[in-house]
Amino acid sequence: MAPQRNVVKIAVQMRDAIPQLIQLDQAKPLATVLKEVCDEWSLTHSERYALQFADGHRRYITESNRTEIKNGSILCLSTAPDLEAEQLLGGLQSGSREGRREALRRLVLLASDMTFAREAISRNGLQKLGTIIEDGDDLGEVLALGLKAFLELMEHGVVSWETLSIPFVRKVVSYVNMNLMDASVQPLALRLLESVTLSSPALGQLVKSEVPLDRLLVHLQVMNQQLQTKAMALLTALLQGASPAERKHMLDYLWQRNLRQFIYKNIIHSAAPLGDEMAHHLYVLQALTLGLLEPRMRTPLDPYSQEQREQLQALRQAAFESEGESPGAGLSTDRRRSLCAREFRKLGFSNSNPAQDLERVPPGLLALDNMLYFARHAPSAYSRFVLENSSREDKHECPFARSCIQLTVLLCELLHVGEPCSETAQDFSPMFFGQDKSFHELFCVGIQLLNKTWKEMRATQEDFDKVIQVVREQLARTLALKPTSLELFRTKVNALTYGEVLRLRQTERLHQEGTLAPPILELREKLKPELMGLIRQQRLLRLCEGTLFRKISSRRRQDKLWFCCLSPNHKVLQYGDMEEGTSLPAPESLPEQLPVADIKALLTGKDCPHVREKGSGKQNKDLYELAFSVSYDCGQEEVSYLNFIAPSKREFHLWTDGLSALLGSPMGSEQTRLDLEQLVTMETKLRLLELENVPIPERPPPIPPPPTNFNFCYDCSIAEP
């Protein structure tokens, strides 16, 4: 008899037949199990049949995935994948339109299964679907189903996108460019072209030449969120595949066509909530636009460039009305050169020759661009800044040029200028789309903030780095609030004074400090076990509520969702796939289950199998920080994994803590540390409320000596009269 751990009790059902309750021996070959099931129903030719999961995507059972069968699983007996593929592909050539439609519907349902996909592809399924797409006899449901089935088969990566023919791609482009087209077709056509653009540079150039930017703008202006999202996806794919010069030309054209204003008003401020995929594409668009600043940031000032010398002189002349520049001054060349050098020093350059200050990269010429923008677009603020500080004699002057150079570096770091786009990030700033020249405008706000903070700190030249650190904190804290406009950003950042920064620092430090009186430390230690139990309870409740996760495929597409939660009795993880936009399912309706007792270990970061396969590039860093897996025993000493990519860092901490609690391991996340510190601090303050303003000694008071006699004690043996 096989060991009990290799046997699972399952049900197998078939249409118009009484279900079988069997004990599946995982050590048996699958063909043997299938023959036994067929024999029970008196079915011959067992090779014509296959087992599928009865719920979810009805995936075929193979030797590689049979370990996913658990106690209580329900399987169904169906046609073998090779025969099913042959039958459905034959149905595509049916003379009946309804027959083709039904075959396509069934094909879409099965195409997500890898086993079926391989069989369909090996029987020229892609070519037959391509014929339906290229013929375009039916521009409605049949075409939409054909495109969807084609995409599902291609997503498995069995066939490269580069093998697609030019006529096929042009036909799909024609569906995107048509004015009157079924609403379900164009999002699928856009999605297909996005995949082509990201995977094949040659075909990407074809798409770029065939799909006008104006056409994508038309799709973006349609009040259909799915169509907008896929149009934005193709737009960012085209921008990413373009050369720097082409990208600049494309973005300039898009801004001229008021794309920024449309995004700000009709997408960011739309009544419908912004989807995760659209948020990612807006992040990419913002990153690519800011990336146009990188060449200027990487280029040092050329002291032999006549244009750049004139820009420096214009900057000086805008601040000072030099007597050497006035008519009839009659100053010698040496005198004029000396006067210019002195004025450049007043302007805040460290050297009399400003070219030496701007040779540093970054920020290179970008710092000069920012200074000129500030001088031309805020001339009164520029003159006030320079003259106010150049005339001071108390060593508290704020150097304008040096501040501009360092502030430009700071903004480039905060906004990640020149860094590659993350493949999963959604951290875009709404303010960026609410303002033309947003980087330069942000600089104008930042340089005035720096001057204000300098005065609040009463700083000297020796305090320059300290001021920059405070300004960095002010800008970072305000950007994290995601203000929707530049004016709102200006208001919030100016409200964050130096005194407020100190107060926030002190508050955060008090939360982190452990240097308290010993009696309070002892009290805190006594409170921790109870409060840690409270945190554990909260983490498990969060797991019971469940979370919606995204699947990351081989090309990191994020268009597939799955939901996972913990059962109320904390004994089973329940999970299953979901469609975007649908409400969260009830736990009992989820098709997959993983008993907590089968979980062996929790893995995070680079130890996760689904992250190890992605390599170690910079663009995978965000995945490392959000990835975790649980390993579980699937029989025959084999280990399987359930892999997660958390939607946020907070969800990552909550889930890893909850799973650690289930496994009896300590909850060691940063979020647990912060929560415990906050709860301990609050509980300690509540316990000490009555001792306010009462000094707490470092040591407990000494115990007094015993009395000389104990005659005051009551004798309990004496009865009451």
TrEMBL record:
<dbReference type="InterPro" id="IPR016024">
    <property type="entry name" value="ARM-type_fold"/>
</dbReference>
<dbReference type="InterPro" id="IPR011993">
    <property type="entry name" value="PH-like_dom_sf"/>
</dbReference>
<keyword id="KW-0581">Phagocytosis</keyword>
<keyword id="KW-0053">Apoptosis</keyword>
<dbReference type="InterPro" id="IPR050868">
    <property type="entry name" value="ELMO_domain-containing"/>
</dbReference>
<dbReference type="Pfam" id="PF16457">
    <property type="entry name" value="PH_12"/>
</dbReference>
<comment type="function">
    <text>Involved in cytoskeletal rearrangements required for phagocytosis of apoptotic cells and cell motility. Acts in association with DOCK1 and CRK. Was initially proposed to be required in complex with DOCK1 to activate Rac Rho small GTPases. May enhance the guanine nucleotide exchange factor (GEF) activity of DOCK1.</text>
</comment>
<dbReference type="Pfam" id="PF04727">
    <property type="entry name" value="ELMO_CED12"/>
</dbReference>
<dbReference type="Pfam" id="PF11841">
    <property type="entry name" value="ELMO_ARM"/>
</dbReference>
<dbReference type="InterPro" id="IPR024574">
    <property type="entry name" value="ELMO_ARM"/>
</dbReference>
<keyword id="KW-0729">SH3-binding</keyword>
<dbReference type="InterPro" id="IPR001849">
    <property type="entry name" value="PH_domain"/>
</dbReference>
<protein>
    <submittedName>
        <fullName>Engulfment and cell motility protein 3</fullName>
    </submittedName>
</protein>
<feature type="domain" description="ELMO">
    <location>
        <begin position="307"/>
        <end position="479"/>
    </location>
</feature>
<dbReference type="InterPro" id="IPR006816">
    <property type="entry name" value="ELMO_dom"/>
</dbReference>
<dbReference type="InterPro" id="IPR011989">
    <property type="entry name" value="ARM-like"/>
</dbReference>
